[in-house]
Amino acid sequence: MDKNISKKAADNIRVLSAAMVEKANSGHPGGAMGGADFIHVLFSEYLNYDPSDRKWFNRDRFFLDPGHMSPMLYAALAMTGTYSMEELSNFRQWGSPTPGHPEVDVERGVENTSGPLGQGHTMALGAAIAERFLTARFGEWMSHKTYAFISDGGVQEEISQGTGRIAGYLGLSNLVMFYDSNDIQLSTTTNDVTIEDTAAKYQAWGWATMTIDGNDHDQIRKALNAANAETEKPFLIIGKTIMGKGAVKEDGSSFEKMVSTHGQPLSAAGASFADSMKNLGADPENPFQIFPEVADAYTKVNEEKAKKAAAKKAEQAEWEKANPELAAKLAQFISGDAPAVDYAGIVQKANSATRAASATVLAAFADQVENMIVMSADLANSDKTDGFLKKTTIFKKGDFSGSFLQVGVAELTMGAIANGMALHGGVIPVCGTFFVFSDYMKPAARMAALMQLPVKYVWTHDAFRVGEDGPTHQPIEQEAQIRLMEKLQNHHGQNSMLVVRPADADETTVAWKMAMENTNTPTALILSRQNITQLPNGSYQTALQAEKGAYIVEKDADQPDIVLLASGSEVSTLVEGAKLLRAQKGLKVNVVSVISEGLFRNQDATYQEAVLPVNVKRFGMTAGLAVTLEGLVGANGKVWGLNHFGYSAPYTVLDKEFGFTGENVLKQVTELLS
After folding, report:
1. Angle CA(30)–CA(38)–CA(42) in degrees, nearest 5?
2. Is 671 a catalytic residue?
């Protein structure tokens, strides 16, 4: 692109970014104005996409980390034709496709929802891993780049360590990241918070780095050329940019490099909006315009992009013709549809821990689901994701023929990587750790729920029955917290997450079936460390009733004297208690397994009332906070749970001390009915 037009295009992005924030009277114009040069050069000259088919699978991906720089992204995408000036002028308004932080919209070129700093570039890492996984199976013809854009805040967030370490270890030369280093953050300068040498840090992790003037287009091109030529390492471009580039005061003096422009419109920050617009070549009265020469240049850009995409698609067509079976497999992967699995053929060992039962299912997946990627935060032999690992190999630099990623101790990083894999598409990400450490993963799990990504979480060691490890490792409040995600709806009116806690080995098989067939939201599987007694008449066919969220395990009558309900380990405890209630009190007792309250609530009223009769008292038992079951039990019932942290002792001792025994079920129900 002509040098003068290229500069004008970057200035046009600056104008539109500042104008969006000014009109909304809310936002972050300074960083967007500083990063405009890089994003213009990237989008116009390097990023491969099909202007008429933005969902083209083999496109390059661009992941924005600092979501507060959304004006820059929307302005750049407007140049490519996916946003109108009217849509930009409605920045941050109700019903607008230009929210304050970008929300995934692939048809418009927005690859990821971004906002919580650090997660965006970690999603890029996940996408880059997915790309290597797929090219290892189908060929380098489908290779493409993943570009990330990060700011000072993202570099400072702890998640960046896990991302930097893993990308360097894997030698992901398909990952290119631009660090918008303007020395300004929201409330201060970076000199007030850090003295680190960012280049040295990333080099220590195994990255190639180059530091440039991030507002100089020739230097940006030189860096991107070097990054694209790199074959051994991920590439970090450190662009020293100017916060609020082009901003001026009313007297024409510079208002660049000001902290205030990070989080306020130019006029509120102390600059002159009108004079800044003039300085950048725009009409202050009508800033929402693409300059004519810039529009012409981008028309030519899109024509070139279309030609390149057509050539790549023709290459794919030739490959598909020569490899029909592989082509069919790739199409199935990309579809996102649940794979065919012989769940009925999975043989479970009775009275197993549900983590062990999960390992049995994962072993079957290793044979039957070819596009599954399993991860574990250094716990594969404890969370039993090693059931999958034993049948495959781990990812290493230059070798993505296996299907397992050893993440190391980095739960949040793992969760965000899984999101990036799901956003890329073509793979099914699974990640495992102890349930208590779901606390570390919650920010990424929330983003998965918001973006409606079918990530699968394997959370084991589900209760105080972790025993001797004590309260630091015994989840108490975690189930109540994560089940709130079943009550929170996504933007399509669905439960934002499916949360399942199976009651025995057969229910675990069904729980995995539910997880795999849930292609619209993330799924959490909450699994036990200790063995669980098989439910009465337990079988895979019986356990299929769990697909409705809750079902009657033991039924004495349509209108029993009491309904006992729980999930997970506690269901078998209720079965013990039911025996005592029948033998000693002559009561008619129904026992209900509630694997997912959210899913149960989605059933029709007739089914719900058949499982939980309206006029029958209910007793619930949960190894966590009582609130987990209080909504199902109701005001006329009672929940036996925990309202305190656990203690270090063998789990059998804790069961007795905390009242999780059949004898206590007898006692509590007797009191309830008296």
Report:
1. 140
2. no
